[in-house]
Amino acid sequence: MFYDAIKNDHGFQYDPFKAIVAPRPIGWISSQAADGTVNLAPYSFFNAFAQAPHYVAFGSGVSVADGMKDSLSNIEATGEFVLNLASFNLREEMNASSRNAPPDVNEFDEAGLQKEASVLVKPPRVAGVAAAMECRHFQTIPLPGDDGSVDDHMVIGRVVGIYINDDFINDGRVDTAGMQPISRLGYSEYAVVTEAFRMRRPD
């Protein structure tokens, strides 16, 4: 089949776009408001985009009730955030932190998570994660619709510090499969990395 992605006339009950662009790593973003209120939320539109220096980006929509989501508001206000690796052992906590909640709600507490101090930025990381990246806000790019209205933004951060749990460092390499990172598929489906294989480029 083929369908016009602008008209989105696929005929399915749910848009298949996210089921095709998959798996997508989850950017589990912790941020802090100017008044010190901490926020934690998972974003399935996320990835890394540069090697030296490191840049990551995630896509943030708008809250139906309040407009700009808390993560984006906090990052715009303070210029910092932390990307926490969402792994299989923390899947329920990650899901609990996805609930739409008012800005004064602490998702760490809601999900039963502990905070751990970051080194170079103010927002804390999730205690017990396999890895986390401390980021400084680089740019927010509005992603307008056909009518010019903006409901989505790409938030780009420069990675300034990286934490890796020592349990997942083996022979000078990070054991990604051992971390069991989870990713988002389409609909309400997720996947987990449990196996890795190597291939060398022909050159």
Summary of the model, kept short:
This protein has 203 residues and is mainly β. The protein has helices at 17-20, 70-78, 91-96, 107-110, 176-179; strands at residues 24-25, 27-32, 38-43, 46-51, 54-60, 62-63, 67-68, 80-85, 115-116, 125-126, 131-144, 150-164, 169-170, 173-174, 182-184, 190-192.
Please give the CATH architecture. Roll
User: Which ranges are low-confidence, i.e. pLDDT below 50, for 5 or more consecutive residues?
Assistant: none
* Computed structural class: mainly beta
> Termini, distance in Å?
37 Å
Largest sheet: 7 strands, antiparallel
- What Rg do the Cα atoms give? 18 Å
The count of helical stretches stands at 5
N-to-C series of helices and strands: HEEEEEEEHEHHEEEEEEHEE
CATH class: Mainly Beta
What strand order characterises the main sheet? 3-2-8-11-12-5-4
Strand fraction band?
A: 35-45%
Rounded average pLDDT: 92
CATH superfamily: Electron Transport, Fmn-binding Protein, Chain A
Query: Helicity, in percent?
Result: 10-25%
> Could you say what the CATH topology is called?
Pnp Oxidase, Chain A
Apparent shape: globular
- Count of all domains: 1
Q: How many strand segments? A: 16
